[in-house]
Amino acid sequence: MPCACGAGHGRFCWRDFSPLSQAVVGAAVEFEKDAVAEDLELLADFVADVAVSVASASSASAIEVTHGRLRTMNQRQAVIEVMRQNSGYATLGLLYKEALKVPGVTWGTRTPFKSINRIVQDPRYFFRIRPGLWALKDSKNKLPPDLINKPRPQSEHSYYQGLLVELGNLRRQQTFVPKQDRRRDFLGKPLGSIITVDDMYLFTYHEIVESAARVDVVWFSERRFPSEFIEVENTTDMHGALLKFVTLNPFHAVFRVVAPAARKREFESKVCHPSFDSIAKRTKFTSYDLVADLHRKASESAALEHEWADV
Known about the structure:
Elements: H1 19-31, H2 40-56, H3 59-85, E1 89-91, H4 92-98, H5 112-120, E2 126-130, E3 133-136, H6 145-148, H7 153-170, E4 174-176, E5 185-186, E6 189-190, H8 206-212, E7 217-220, E8 226-232, H9 239-247, E9 254-259, H10 264-271, E10 283-287, H11 288-310
């Protein structure tokens, strides 16, 4: 059906709506004028949807629809802004921490973290790189090669090493990685920049401390005693990790192997060998996916605590 003005505008035309309808849509466009340059397609969809709502609803419900769509757009833009400031990608933990701080954005929900989870799953704007790590679709060609191609084993190892360090920090543990690993890249920064323990604490005899200093990630309690020894096993033989744990057996700490979920059976077959009887009950297997999920939940908790402190 042709539009009211006869100019061939197609489905929608400004003159097809009442003055109230024009006012609502006009207010929405004015509110979003700063975002037009980077989100023209979304804005066009938004105006069309609001026009439909206004044409068929009362003024009160139309305004409610308008406010809801505006809020959703602004929330998405907050997530996009954080990613742009972080070279086009971010962990969910970083988004939880920074997206809520973007000025001019009203989240208007009791579950903002669920909103962020839902926003990043919109394939028009985002895509998942790895568990817990998302990127902007329009930045795909600008990302580091290890993020857009199949990751090299060392890159995968460093990523989960970094998540484990951040998870330890979020849990108020002191964190350590071997000195030879500290220049490895973790999301654009060296692993050494996020640890809290530079030199391994001298918690026992020198020979054992040296062995502990070769474990991929070590968490320490406030008393400077090890609470967890963690080995990341992407493709390497788990036997070496279990031998390290045997050396550290006298200490009351958790031993943990972190690896792809597909390697769990391999872990179970190795840890039940008689050579490892002394550590079998204290040695845990944790999948990559679970590490990413724990990192997300710990980041969410930390953001809530920060918000509580500001109330």
